[in-house]
Amino acid sequence: MTQDPGRSAPAASARGLALLRDPLLNKGTAFTERERDALGLRGLLPPHVLSQDEQVERFLENLRRQPDDLAKYVALNALNDRNAALFFRVVCDNIDEMQPLIYTPTVGLACQRYGHIFQSARGLFIGANDRGRVAQVLRNWPLRAGIIVVSDGERILGLGDLGANGMGIPVGKLSLYTACAGVQPDLCLPVILDVGTNNTELLDDPFYVGLRQRRLRGAAYDELVEEFITAALEVFPGVVIQFEDFANQNAFRLLKHYRDRICTFNDDIQGTAAVALAGIFSALRITGGKLGEQKVLFLGAGEAAIGIADLIVAAMASQGLTEQAARARCAMVDSRGLVVKNRTDLSEEKRRYAQEHAPIGDFPAAVKALKPTAIIGVAAVGGTFTGEVLQEMARINQRPIVFALSNPTSKSECTAAEAYRHTGGRALFACGSPFDPVTLDGRSFVPRQGNNSYIFPGVGLGAIASRTRRITDEMFMTAAHTLAHDVTESDLEQGSLYPALPRIREVSTHIATAVARVAWRNGLAAGREPQDIAAHVTSQMYDPHYHRLV
Ligand code: NAD
User: Fold this and answer.
1) Residue 409: what pLDDT?
2) pLDDT digits (tens, 9 = 90+) for 108-146
3) How far apart are CA 316 and CA 288, in angstroms?
4) Catalytic residue among 173, 177, 208, 420
5) Pocket test for ligand 1, best of 407, 449, 455 (most atoms within 8 A of CB)
6) Substitution candidate for ligand 1 out of 249, 310, 367, 378 with most atoms within 8 A of CB
7) What are the distances in angstroms from CA 76 to CA 83, 101, 116, 130, 364?
8) Among the atoms of ligand 1, which is closest to the Cα of residue 405?
9) Which domains, from first to last, does the chain contain?
10) Helix (H), strand (E) counts: the chain
């Protein structure tokens, strides 16, 4: 495994069987006659040479014959373990079909069944019992990591505590970094911090992969995280560390603790924020309104809501509003009603959004009272944008912004059809789960998912390309602007607030370039600013087509 970042043709040092077993170099039956002679492969492969296109076709034929999505997930991961280039060709060329298989929703099921479908290890498992030797564990990784996605498995998607089974998440996420933004696969390191699990079903499962202990808490937990971060920077200087699927109380704390110390971000909080803000920017391209005039009401006040609100406030402040005025424009309803000043049960994060308002018990009443221009559903409670709520939004606003972001589909606040039907086709709608196009009164609407994968791969690539020391709010704001800018007029005409997914590599390149530009402008990047940042970014991107090895 000898590929350097930014180099398109890896040098083949391995030969024979070792070469066929190196997923970063293996081409399987696509090794040419010359390569077979020069690299000691003759006889180790069947004689008929296939092109990569033919291999893709053959793999797809097999994949589509699999009985269910979990079987497809297993087949795709096995391909990645054998032949990374072929895996990424399959994924990149069929992103609409493959993303739901390698990431949500299938990855959720894969994590639940992780111990039972386990075939071979991927990534690094760092356990509570590794305290004092984490650097040593990291040195066992044979490659130079440029980006780590780390989870402690406590809040896997909407599925709760899955402990070390959560490894499917960093693995899947990093595949998206490569597929959607061309981050070199050999720079990607998935990590699980196995601090135990409180999921008794898993603790009783003979095939559970993790430590048989309850979760570390308090100082012991913090010390393990700190040792991991320090060791990661020592072993892989400059590495980007993305936190993923940590439970609420740790996610905010760790982000606050590390964001100004290392190059890090939390996608559940900041990536979600940027994709939602991009959706609002796209909606404003249709209405012609200004961000500072919006009044946003969130259903939910967790990682997604607080993250989105923080970025909206930062964006409003950058347009001249005071922070206080901007916060007053972002209200939240949680399971106990409107988040208001006189409530005594609020966390530090929620308190920042507490409104000067009399208590309101439920969401429909809050919509009536606050008259928002936008409602954003991130409470993971299905059906909460009722006909009454949507009709009220349509009464208050000419073009109501309605984002039903909760996942999976069963938790969606409303369907796309409901959003359009109850607003007479006037809703500017985005969703967390996929919905089919809707036809209403002869008009056709194409709702698109506010998927985080529009944002984090580009941000990661931009961070790697600029070797930035920090990942800032300004970078996420820039990413949001860039994404909204990439939405075409014909997208907007059909009600799509995001670009089509097959354009993801192009979009990610734009985002990475914009992020790297911010890094250089703010003195955060390492090395001299290249004359052409876009060309510099593109030159770092992985190309899954085969390269000649001789
Ligand atoms: P979280 O657990 O941090 O927050 C959930 C919040 O909802 C909490 O504040 C909770 O108090 C509140 N809540 C629970 N029941 C409620 C009720 N009945 N009424 C009002 N509020 C209630 O979770 P999160 O990370 O913020 O994610 C929330 C949802 O958003 C999930 O479904 C997730 O899949 C989705 N999400 C979507 C995207 C995306 O589409 N890009 C990104 C991130 C999260």
Assistant:
1) 83
2) 999 999 999 999 999 999 999 999 999 999 999 999 999
3) 16
4) 173
5) 407
6) 378
7) 10, 8, 16, 31, 44
8) 40
9) 101-262 (3.40.50.10380), 270-451 (3.40.50.720)
10) 25, 14
